[in-house]
Predict the structure.
Amino acid sequence: MVEVDNLTKVYGDVIAIEGVTFQAREGEILAFLGKNGAGKTTTMRIMTGFMAPTSGTVRINGHDIREESLEARRLIGYLPETAPLYEDMSVQGYLSFCARLRQVPPREVAERVDRVMEDVHIAERRSWQIGKLSKGLRRRVGLAQSLVHNPKVLILDEPTEGLDPEQIIEIRHLIQSLRGDHTVILSTHILPEAQMLADRIVIIHNRRIVAVDTAQNLTAAVQRAQRLRVEVQGPVSDVQKRLQAVTGVQRVDLLEETRMAGRARYIVESDREIDLREKLATAVVESGWGLLELERLELTLEDIFLHITSGRRDRGEAIEPAPAAGGTPA
Amino acid sequence: MTIAEREFRALITAPLGFVVMTFFLFVSGVFFVAPLQQNVASMSVVVGNTTIWLVFLLPALTMRLLAEEKKTGTIELLMTAPVTEAQVVLGKYLGVLAYYAVMLFSMMQYVFVLGMVRKAAANPIFPTYTGLVLTVATLVILTLAALQESRPLSIAAAFLGVATLICAGFAAAQMGEWGPVLTGFLGLLMLGAVFLAIGVLTSGLTRNQIISWVSTAAILLVLTVLMSWLTGSMPATPPTLEASPNFGSYLSFGAGWVVYALAQVLGALNLQSYLQNFAQGVLDIRDFILYLSLIGVSLFFAVRGLQTSRAA
């Protein structure tokens, strides 16, 4: 259980975060979602006791991070934005150092280190020097470091940042396997990642918390329709009519600015629950036109921000939503 | 203690440690051999002349301690682990102090060589040759222990180290010089301990290693060489008043007292002069208190520095 209450941090005359308040329940995964510079790292650094807040409190299982700092810190595993690795040490040596630093009983150190190396799949590199590891492997050692003392609360600052897609999936699986035993708070700027991993999402925008809710509720509130982007080679008005005629399609918008040399892009809206991709493809191909592109548009962080910060239910129709970032299959 | 062990191991296995150790042995070797060629066989020459080099060498050991952690972000690991700032600083300090002790330990060879040169012992095998072999064996096994992170080897190294020290004791006793040898080493250890504490302090105040090195070396230079030079050029006795004073002589008498008092203060701050006491085999409790309080003050401010960085 992590309780963050009314945190404010001011650097000189720059306000980094303002009135940040939220709770993470025992055993849940909480995603901390926000753009770069929104205040995610600052909040996490305060939660782990690395820096003091200007005002406000953080409690880890009831221990105040300032007043009972050592007790609170004992419960935390932390992966900072840049993994804190000693490049001159071996993987195993480094992890045993971290275990002892976190006061794992001496007799259990070797066992814990072995276990955590298995968990993050670096056991075969145990005697490698950390400085010689690739970025993905380093990130895994960083994660192992935060897990080695089996902490109650795990705070991960952008755990998948800088990894290739395969590694991202691996790390996500690992994080999901922690659900239940650990309270996990992770930060990310990738919406699908938050949707996929987290029980609840905390959205921080312009130094403030703007929403705390489950992924379903957040997206449902914003996205009432499913949107597809279709690029077709063919006469514009005919194509538009044909697409409109497909059952289930609610509206078709032509993206005027993409119109060139007989091809154009269209945004097709349908009900959120149904997948029209196959029907649309068939319709286009049967009419003898060329189907150049067909993509389901994910809701982006931008869309949610726009929605929440402006308080609008309808998004501006002129805005073409970008495909989801992060390269993850929806 | 975990932190101390890591630092110690890092220094033994890292290139930086090698470089400093090599340079240290080279310099002390020169000061050992040079007097021998003039038929002066004594430890005190080595001890006295090595200090000035420690001014430059020891900051190189301490410069990375905290500055590098700040730069690479590993400080986040230490500051969010369940350890206090004092434990972090003390751990770092003890780690580097242990390495310095190993550097001094490698100087034991000079004691044995000195024993051979003087032919003080009836038996050439013990303690001098035995001691030399033990010194080398200790250093080799210690390095291996650090590289392989092996506990049995560390214990073996510790035993060999103690055996070496016992041999050194015998060798020094046979030369009839165990007093100066003991206090010489003790003095170097204490002086180095002060240097290292100041180094830890500057390393904690910056994230740039070069700045830490330069400022530590500068402080140490002021405390040793500059102080010697200043006090050397000042009167060592209080001024006296002429028999029939006029106004001018009152004035110069007053000025003389100011300079004299200043010389006393600066002299008290001159760390090297204390080492001369040690090198000659004089143990003065006041020297110890001065050294210990310098270490205490430096480390205290280093801890405060870390605490401040958490709050800022």
